[in-house]
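Q: Got a minute? One more chain.
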Amino acid sequence: MNDLTLPLSGLSSVGGKSVVARFDGGMLSSDSGVLALAEVEKRLRVADRLARCIDDPRSPDQVIHNFADMIGFRMKMIAAGYEDGNDANRLRSDPVFKMAQDAPPSGRDLASQSTMCRLENLPDVRSLLAMGRTMVDLYYASFRQIPKRIVLDIDDTFDAVHGNQQLRLFNAHHDEYGFQPIVVFDGDGRFVAAVLRPAKRPSGAEIRAHLRRLVRAIRSNWPNIRILIRADGHYCSPQIIDWCRANDVDFILGVPPTTTLRKHVADLEARTTARFEASPKTNKVRRFKEFLDGAASWSRVERIIARVEVGAQGADTRFIVTNLAGGKAKALYEDVYCRRGAAENHIVLEDASRRRPNVLHKSDGQPVPAVPACRRLLAHVGPARCDAETLQLCRRAIRHAAFAPHQDRCAGGRDEDANPPAPADILPRPTHPAHRPRSHSAARDITMGRRRPETNPPTATCKPHLPSRRITAGA
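A: Always. Here it is, folded:
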């Protein structure tokens, strides 16, 4: 009988040293990092929280793998780079994945791909809404102290799909079929919420519904918190502006340039161009101006800030709108609005080699119905949060990727602040009494390696609310 564990002989030496191949190493795995991730997941209990949102129709005496174990296994697969559910058939017997699920390496195998598929097709719309609210609850738990104010960065990202998936739509800009989920992070890089949607520009009514649920959920725990909505020109609509004013929410949004707005800065553009031409050695010349104006669809005029920048490529003019009463135009644009460029890094980086653990992974885009696709979006969010918590254990500064190239930045050659303040701390004081700062201290930046607050966590409890019927992975 041939012994398959005998060493493979006859291999050529390398560098004067013999090479021996043996097959008696026992159970091996190349994913030992999952064990460290499992320790963080045990502390956060993400899988248990999500499992409680799904009704289990199975007979209790016939259950082998409970929902918490399956969700935890799926999350760790994604975190380890196995985003395709088919990999479960091979990884279910991996000793490291078994130990990460509190199972002995020689014990029963984990859930198979078919079992995972049934799990992803099981949640209904209300289960998904509850799971999204659970992710918001995890956002609350990331603070040790109630913050005075938070900044919510809202943006969308394109996710190409393959096959006839529900909710898929052709996007001319990307020249592909896909989804365009809306993802919300706070100013410090913590994930807050997400919503799965077709690959088209979101309407004002759609964004308003998402913000209404999200802000309601946040204020159910923190009723006196000040909230700033920060987004690009895609989210500047009369529905959003009117809703923010009616609900005492601050906003700073990009505004698409129009002929009317350009008339206000025509003289400034000419003077800035002349100044640049007078000193061509200057890298760029940047000037600011603010005025009151508004689109015909707006219910009132708003505070508009214009940034005019002239360089070797010509003049570049940007506009933003805000309801913040204080602050200079330059400070609001450079120190508040331009910081939203960091949110691009927290959502998606096309180059996989530059991804960070707090960046959402894109799905494989396999043909699945809309509700399971939304469930899969949540599955990608869970390990991203766990990985971010893992990095916090290092207690050291974390270097993130640079801002996306298309994002507006501060003038070239300007010295960067070595210790920039937290985005929420540089906002002007609000004029509305409900948004005046309380005695609580604002939470500091934790994703950049700063010290987290050391006071006791808040004791406020969440108040349930009726969710919308939209398929949502957010609030």
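A: The CA atoms of residues 292 and 401 lie 36 Å apart.
Q: Perfect, thanks.
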